[in-house]
Amino acid sequence: MATSAKKVCLVGDFSVGKTSLIRRFVDNQFSDEYLSTVGVKLSRKLVNLSQTADASPKDVELLIWDIEGQTQFKAIAPSYLQGAKGAIIVGDVKRPDTLDHLEDHIALFLKINPKGKVIVALNKADLVTPEACEKLVEKYTFNVQQPQVLATYATSAKTGKDVNAIFHELASAMLQ
Fold first, then answer.
1. What are the residues facing 12 on neighbouring strands?
2. Which top CATH class is 2-175?
């Protein structure tokens, strides 16, 4: 069975839930306690992709970089993004300013990794109605202008909604 390691970066403004998404995906845990990431924190998880195009099972080890979301951090971020095959760009559905910055985060990631793949996560979906989530997903769908952006999901680290889906879809796309 082939195993491949891929670097994935989680990018977004501070307090949008990047660390919580990683914690939910890697450890299946959630905490309401906010801990600000300083610099970068690395996690890893082995993902089995048994539904590949050639039907052979493949394992992908995701090397997940949780990158600090402070605004003044933009000068340092490019070095952390180098070599990444994929990114999950995260915004908070309750904070419109973080959603307005999604396009900038996508542009920065793709400038450094033009062949990279991107998933957009509109996090904290449990805090708004399903109808509001649907409208936000429609509004913040970028794959029409940028084919490297695979999809936009309304996620919740708290409930686990679509957390595994974003990492699995990204892992699968990075293998192709």
1. 90
2. alpha beta
Copy the structure tokens of residue 120. Answer: 């957009």
The single-letter DSSP state of residue 83 is: T
The count of C-alpha atoms lying within 13 angstroms of the C-alpha of 95, restricted to the half-sphere facing its C-beta, is: 15
Read off the pTM: 0.91
Give residue 146's pLDDT: 86
CB atoms closer than 10 angstroms to residue 21: 27
Per residue in 11-48, pLDDT (tens digit) is 999 999 999 999 999 999 988 776 666 667 899 999 98
SS (HEC) of 144-174: CCCCCEEEEEECCCCCCCCHHHHHHHHHHHH
Would you state the pLDDT for residue 71?
58
Burial of 63 (0-12, 13-18, 19+ CB in 10 A): middle
Domain ranges, ordered by start, for the chain: 2-175
CB 30 within 8 A of CB 24: yes
Read off φ and ψ for residue 27, nearest 5 degrees. Answer: -110, 0
Q: CA-CA distance, 158 to 155, in Å (whole number)?
A: 9
